[in-house]
Here is the input.
Amino acid sequence: MKRKILKNVEWGILICTIILLIIGLVALTSATKNSDYDELKRQIMWIAISIPVMIIIIFIDYDLIAKLAPVLYGIIIALLIGVLFTEPINGATSWFNIGSFSLQPAEFAKIICILMLALVMTKIQKRGRDEISRVPKLLLVLLVFAVPTLLIIKQPDYGTALAFVMALIFMLFAAGIKKRYIIASILLVVIAVPLLYFFVLPEHAKTRIDVYLNPELDPRGAGYNIIQSKLAIGAGELFGMGLFKGNQTQLGFLYPKTTDFIFSLIGEEMGFIVAAGVIILYVVLITKAIYVAKTAKDDLGSYIAMGIARCIFLSYGRKHRNDNGTTSNNRYTTSICKLWRKFATK
Here is the structure.
């Protein structure tokens, strides 16, 4: 039994993860140099906790985990409702604070929602693969998706809500939903996006989108961090400035350097080669995850794997709370795009 499980492990995913962990820990070592390595120690602690959890989960059949999905789904909905009554931090009610420990239910909701959607879609398709395209059944899937998503939008946390939307799209595509629904959804998005932007989004959300697309609109305010990240990546050139030697990183211009802009630190201190290697590793991870979804023994495993692939693909959706109580969205996507552009102009 153990040999069979180990034989079926996708070792490419494990190897990529280990390499990314090593690069991340090295980068955190540099980023936390002036803070007694507090966040590095915390990261090592979580890695130490995660390894036995990973091993245990490997030896548990995902069918059993999926059967627990309704219970977990109910718990996470209760937590998402409860977190709305907590003290807002910079206008967002996303965390439970337990002493020095913070819990963000939306992070757990990502995985639990994937499990619940996979379970519901699998049960629907027991009567036939085309059942998922029937309107009543599709509405049931959308209801399971909509409840946690709307609660997360209420916080508000638009980045995580977008991650849920992407998970649903990936999983419905894997389920073989009819093309007319895909085309209709694309048209709906094309129509809805400008309407949401002009008539629904609050002013601060519009500003964030505008500055995200063009940081020069507010170079000393909302666009400052993005501009500094570009400068850091450009300064790294091919081989980097060396660990503990990055100007933007070590002089405090890059913030928050341990979370949102850790990729910029890698670009500045380790250079284009290592930074590009990180991108390649993520591409391999996504490719391997999709391969696992295609070759899974059943639909349940396929849908879960496709949902997890979305988690990797849209990893920037996580919202981080800074030390000063403010919040910001992860900007790996911006940093990656700027890396190629900045290097090309050198």
The CA atoms of residues 67 and 119 lie 8 Å apart. Residues 316-346 have pLDDT under 50 and may be disordered.
